[in-house]
Amino acid sequence: MAPQQQNSSSDASAPKKPRKSITMEVKYDVIKCSEKGESNTEIGHALGLSRTTVVTIVKDKQRIPKHVQEAAPMKATVINMKQRSQNVVEMEKLLLIWLEDQNQRRVPVSLSVIQEKARELHAAVVKKSGAGSASEEFSASRGRFNRFKSHANLHNVKLQGEAASADSSRKFP
Asked: How far apart are CA 106 and CA 99, in angstroms?
């Protein structure tokens, strides 16, 4: 009987190449380079990717820009700028920075504190922009805050508040 030959591709002693995850930003760069007319091989060499990986990314170019746009924190705010005034957009950017600062300091915030800060920031932005926008109304409502959270892509904002009080009229034996 003839000895069996081992297939070199299934050799257990050969080191496996580790998988490399590619961020959406890198994929977006691949698509932009491809649209400029660069070849897949050139793109692969420039970004340290294989040609087949570049080809796969370019084939999936319909989905990637949409995903990058949705993943960016304030991109939705910029897109919806026609529906909201520039003052509100600026106030939301400042409020986001303030919230991140409070979060890093581990300072608990309540909805009322966030609403008050939003009112202060909006008044400051209106004052800075001039008298022409003084007629603009702003209400820091719960619904506006929930829309702000979705615009800013905030998922883990923990609001601190007062706990419900106990029923003092009930007597225990």
From this structure: 10
Domain extent listing, the chain: 21-68, 75-151
| Euclidean distance between CA atoms 4 and 147, whole angstroms | 67
Cα dist from 8 to 11, 13, 16, whole Å = 5, 10, 12
Phi then psi for residue 33, to 5 deg, are: -65, -40
Residue labelled with tokens 């829309």? 147
Torsion sign (Cα): 95, 98, 103, 107 = negative
pLDDT for the residue numbered 76: 43
Distance CA 29, CA 21 (A): 15
Residue 102 near residue 94, CB atoms below 8 Å: no
Distance of CA 32 to the CA centre of its chain: 21
Residue 1 tokens read as 């009987």
Q: Which two tokens stand for residue 4?
A: 């069996």
With beta carbons less than 8 A apart as the criterion, state whether 51 and 40 touch. Answer: yes
In angstroms, rounded to a whole number, what is the distance separating the alpha carbons of residues 157 and 109? 9
**Orientation of helix 24-36 relative to helix 64-71, angle to 10°:** 130
What's the whole-model pTM score? 0.44
- Which residues of the chain fall below pLDDT 50? 74-82, 163-166
Predicted pLDDT of residue 80: 41
